Amino acid sequence: MNVIVNGSPQELCATTLAQALDELGYGAATVASAVNGRFVRAVSRDITALADGDAIEIVAPMQGG
Amino acid sequence: MNVIVNGSPQELCATTLAQALDELGYGAATVASAVNGRFVRAVSRDITALADGDAIEIVAPMQGG
Amino acid sequence: MNVIVNGSPQELCATTLAQALDELGYGAATVASAVNGRFVRAVSRDITALADGDAIEIVAPMQGG
Amino acid sequence: MNVIVNGSPQELCATTLAQALDELGYGAATVASAVNGRFVRAVSRDITALADGDAIEIVAPMQGG
Amino acid sequence: MNLYGIEVASRLLLGTARYPSPAILADAVRASGTGIVTVSLRREAGPQRGGQAFWAMIRDLGVRVLPNTAGCHSVKEAVTTAHMAREVFDTPWVKLEVIGDADTLQPDVFGLVEAAAILCADGFEVFPYTTEDLSVAERLVEAGCRILMPWGAPIGTGKGLNNVLGLRTLRAHFPEVPLIVDAGIGLPSHAAAAMELGYDGILLNTAVARAGDPIAMAGAMATAIEAGRAAFLAGPMEPRDMASPSTPMIGQAVLG
Amino acid sequence: MNLYGIEVASRLLLGTARYPSPAILADAVRASGTGIVTVSLRREAGPQRGGQAFWAMIRDLGVRVLPNTAGCHSVKEAVTTAHMAREVFDTPWVKLEVIGDADTLQPDVFGLVEAAAILCADGFEVFPYTTEDLSVAERLVEAGCRILMPWGAPIGTGKGLNNVLGLRTLRAHFPEVPLIVDAGIGLPSHAAAAMELGYDGILLNTAVARAGDPIAMAGAMATAIEAGRAAFLAGPMEPRDMASPSTPMIGQAVLG
Amino acid sequence: MNLYGIEVASRLLLGTARYPSPAILADAVRASGTGIVTVSLRREAGPQRGGQAFWAMIRDLGVRVLPNTAGCHSVKEAVTTAHMAREVFDTPWVKLEVIGDADTLQPDVFGLVEAAAILCADGFEVFPYTTEDLSVAERLVEAGCRILMPWGAPIGTGKGLNNVLGLRTLRAHFPEVPLIVDAGIGLPSHAAAAMELGYDGILLNTAVARAGDPIAMAGAMATAIEAGRAAFLAGPMEPRDMASPSTPMIGQAVLG
Amino acid sequence: MNLYGIEVASRLLLGTARYPSPAILADAVRASGTGIVTVSLRREAGPQRGGQAFWAMIRDLGVRVLPNTAGCHSVKEAVTTAHMAREVFDTPWVKLEVIGDADTLQPDVFGLVEAAAILCADGFEVFPYTTEDLSVAERLVEAGCRILMPWGAPIGTGKGLNNVLGLRTLRAHFPEVPLIVDAGIGLPSHAAAAMELGYDGILLNTAVARAGDPIAMAGAMATAIEAGRAAFLAGPMEPRDMASPSTPMIGQAVLG
Asked: Residue H240, Cβ neighbours under 10 Å: how many?
């Protein structure tokens, strides 16, 4: 499946958001994620199916003012 | 009929706003008027019936900053 | 002898500044003194003769900014 | 005679300040002059003898704030 | 400057309240050279019918009037007052005030934007009394306002330009919208300073009306506004931290 | 205002340095309406004799000249320069500058008072370029100065009035002495503000000469000075902390 | 001070961005004595997983985190970011920024109020980054905000308190709501001045992170905030226009 | 800092006048952590011998005293007072005040320099109360002063730093001379601001003595002075006109 991860096109085997995060190596990381601009709670990642062309955002803690 | 004119109770014979303005001596004056907080155009004063207890506001040009 | 002490006329028996200070009760006090606008060191009080009409200033530590 | 005119060494035939100004072309100009840091009034230029090494300043109106 | 299609010669807009007498008001208006005065609507009262006499005097002055909605704290009051003013003064212009706080007389920026949208949609030409806030200004322009009138300082304080940085930013952000400082001006130097920032005009009242000599002060304000405008167009020098001699240093005689 | 017995119509004194061209200087002087320009003395140099042409131009303008002692750091230099200026410009007037620090061009107040005393005793009419310091001002007046010219800000900075409290105090302390702010003015609003404090006049140079359009700025400065003076005479309102409605609150309709 | 039921010892909230290194950030946080640091969410990138390391470091510091919505220009972005932050940082706190203008980074006050209402209704404890505008502040409080964070000056400028009158008015209007100056502080004297106005706390970042020695500056800011708070509680003298001798005049010797 | 060879831990010098009671004065001195207090000489009066009790109390505090010549308007008075103070307080230190104007209590800079020269020649270690004037400061240093104490604002006004530009210039001009702001400080933020300019210390009195709680204010001032000093050493950020995000913009998620 071709998706956009943090703005870059990427080809993934995953069919759910949870699988995608695993496949991208965020399995254990402290991140939040959104699909097509909608926040997806961590508990819902398993049941969030991905479709071709979906835009996934994965964010992590960062410096802020 | 008992109405409130500019905040003061008053007894009038008038049954329309136009008559009321005449009766109060504003026939020829440059004023605007409202009944119960709603602006009534000059052209509609004739057809604006008054009811007991109506609040009439009559305003005129005044100093302003 | 009639002298002016801190602006007030006073009659003293003293003939030297040292005696005057004693007579006024400043014997042991921490004060500095001037006669007719001139500072007199403590060591010179004994040899400072007073004349009728002399103006003596006696100052002590006080609050200051 | 060798003099300094406005900071530059110069050789002049003049023996008075008046002659010097003439020789330098300031005969009719609106200028004031000083010799060795001392102002010389215009009326005294004739009687102001120059000596070798004298420093002459010649100033004219200029922009100012 | 051009205000809703009307070319206006004077950049001063003058309030008509708080003068010692109607005669002094009239003379102050004339001395100011203004083409626009602000007026309000209040209950006509008493047998003297003061409003009629006031209105007759204003008409004699031959100036445009800009009716305000002073004292309105709600959108409904402001909109109704604007309608009454349009009828009485026969003008689409309205100086829109929706007051948010009785102590500072600062605009309620939410009510202001809402009322501006209603009135613009209804054909009014709105002069909004606002703050220097950019995000409010943008909404007012979106609502249809073609003029913005930020405060200099709270009404009647005479404190001048309380937030120069904010006013400068507003000017930079809206290079094409006529900007008029409304309220807070106390001295001609304040008015000139606003014009030097590139503002298009000044609306003031108390500083003239409450001066010892309102007529002379009206003239002084007009003059200062012209000076500030001319300076803006002339391109002022940049201020610098270090001193710099005006008289040239070169050619200085050695007299030491 | 009256300066050493001469009644002067314009309250602006204009410097003649740093203009883009002599023609622009001449036009700026005319546009300013000034009656007094400052000039200096420098070494006459080159075959072009620039000083003679400058002087001819100034004379054609029909204004009084106020020669300065700019650049002098010692009493001797300043006094000698004053004497040369008196001869060249045929005037007892001298703008006395004794500079104490090359970075700020601030007066050396000790040298200033000393030179002022010498020159006043010698019949000069001294315009001392000074600070807002009261104790210096008193010595200058004792020395014979009948005018004081405190700086607004360091020369050429265009920062305006750097110490308003000090300038106000000086004015209060010398109600009868003509006080002219000399140096630091960058904008018409600065000049107006000084006049609003009750100052009698303004001497400026760089703000006009270095403006994008010096001629227009000269006019703007003159206008602002008039506005500030008129405001001072008219009696400005007192600034207040709390807002105060200009439009009357009484008689407001209830439309809520 | 009490922030949403949490008693906080230090009145300084510190940002975590723009430090020379993570080690210096950590030392600055310790030196500041703060109990609350602001953080953001950004795309996790690269094999280094910088966000994870940053987060581990912050957790080690033992301070609360206040996640921000920096960079969000729309209500939707801000609300979504707040939700993500709540999950990641496991806190209902959010510093709500809805930016209205890229040049000044001033809040879009309309978007801010709208987002605040949505988030408060959803259980968030909102720290709104706002202006000194009273009418906006009132809407924020109505929306459920129990803290207000007006700017001192635009973010990152270090200009201090740009509108003291406005900040003072806000304090007077909301005597009970914790008010924290957020943005614009450049120096300890700025922070102290805000506290002297009666503000409850200060949120700053750039002034510490971009100081020559961020760790020392963090301490200086903390100290100044304590000093300002203590002064507010101690009741400062009233400033006066006239001088007044501190040393008593009575009893002065006559030595002249 | 080092004052005439004495290393001083606290950068605060505290006046002893105008406190509600001697006990509060004593506690304020302790709370301030100061090592130096100013005192004066006045006529000893009454049977109570107030001066002796005051002096006993000061000695118990274990601090150095800096006697002043407050109230002296002539060189002779000041010099005589200094001599009396040297005898009574057994110290070569003297805070030299020669007052030029009763309204502003500004120094008479001429009398000041003259008295300083006399006293320095006679072995005194002079702390001159002066203005920010460079040319005066140079004469004081030439006269033998190894410390300069410019005013912040007129004594007792609490207005803070009235002429920041002048104070900054003085600091730049005398990088090696200890500079202490003396007079005018009203708030901790004022004291911090002076220290941020690189000043070495602060002398104040009224702001503490006339605070609602002088003891707490003494502590607040001491703290603020430390904060300002630390900030100066840490190297503050440069203020900027444009806003600049603290939170990084790179990596922002697209959620719009």
From this structure: 15
- Can you read off the two tokens belonging to residue F187? 């904008």
What is the distance between the alpha carbons of residues B12 and F209, in angstroms, rounded to a whole number?
Answer: 74
Nearest Cβ partner of C60 from H51, H68, H76? H51
Name the residue facing F158 among E192, E206, E237 (closest C-beta): E237
Contact C57 G256 (CB under 8 A): no
Residues G63 and G39 sit within 8 Å (Cβ to Cβ): no
**C40 is written with which tokens?**
């007199």
CA atoms within 13 A on the CB side of F98: 23
Give CA–CA dist E84/B33, Å, rounded.
Answer: 7
Q: Which residues of H are catalytic?
A: 95
Assigned token pair, B22: 């005449």
In which residue are the tokens 């004699």 written?
E60
Structure confidence by residue, pLDDT tens digits, E15-47: 999 999 999 999 999 999 999 999 999 998 766
Touching chains G and H? (3+ Cβ pairs < 8 A): yes
- Give strand pairing partners of E180: E201
Distance CA C47, CA C61 (A): 24
* G130 touches G180 (CB < 8 A): no
Tell me the whole-structure pTM to 2 decimals.
0.95
Instruction: Tell me the C-alpha distance between H159 and H143, whole Å.
Output: 30
What residues of G are in contact with residue H246 (Cβ under 8 Å)?
15, 17-18, 70, 155-156, 205-206, 209
Predicted-complex ipTM score: 0.94
Known catalytic membership, residue E95: yes
Structure tokens that stand for E212 in this block = 């010892």
Kind of pairing between the strands at D55-63 and D32-35: antiparallel
| C-beta of residue E135 within 8 angstroms of C-beta of residue G106 | yes
* Local structure of residue C42 (DSSP, 8 states): G
Determine the length of chain H.
256
Cβ contacts (< 8 Å) between D5 and chain E: which residues? none
Given 3-state DSSP classes, what are the helix, strand and coil percentages for chain B, each rounded to the nearest 5? Answer: 15, 40, 45
Report residue F152: phi and psi, to 5°: -90, -45
Using H for helix, E for strand and C for coil, what is the string for chain G?
A: CEECCEECCCCEEEECCCCCCHHHHHHHHHHHCCCEEEEEEEECCCCCCHHHHHHHHHHHHCCEEEEECCCCCCHHHHHHHHHHHHHHHCCCEEEECCECCCCCCCECHHHHHHHHHHHHHCCCEEEEEECCCHHHHHHHHHHCCCCEEECCCCCCCCCCCCCHHHHHHHHHHCCCCCEEEECCCCCHHHHHHHHHCCCCEEEECHHHHCCCCHHHHHHHHHHHHHHHHHHHHHCCCCCCCCCCCCCCCCCCCCCC
Q: Which one, of G237, G233, G154, lies nearest residue G199 by Cα?
A: G233
Residue D11 CB burial class (10 angstroms; 0-12, 13-18, ≥19): exposed
Name the residue among H247, H253, H256 with its Cβ closest to that of A63: H247
- Residue G90, amino acid: D
DSSP state of H154: S
Residue-by-residue pLDDT tens, chain F, 256 positions: 999 999 999 999 999 999 999 999 999 999 999 999 999 999 987 667 889 999 999 999 999 999 999 999 999 999 999 999 999 999 999 999 999 988 889 999 999 999 999 999 999 999 999 999 999 999 999 999 999 999 999 999 999 999 999 999 999 999 999 999 999 999 999 999 999 999 999 999 999 999 999 999 999 999 999 999 999 999 999 999 888 888 888 889 998 7
Q: Cα–Cα distance between E167 and E159 in angstroms, integer?
A: 15
DSSP string, D14-62: -SBHHHHHHHTT-SSS--EEEETTEEE-GGGSTT-B--TT-EEEEEEEE
Q: Which run of H or of E encompasses E223?
A: helix E214-234
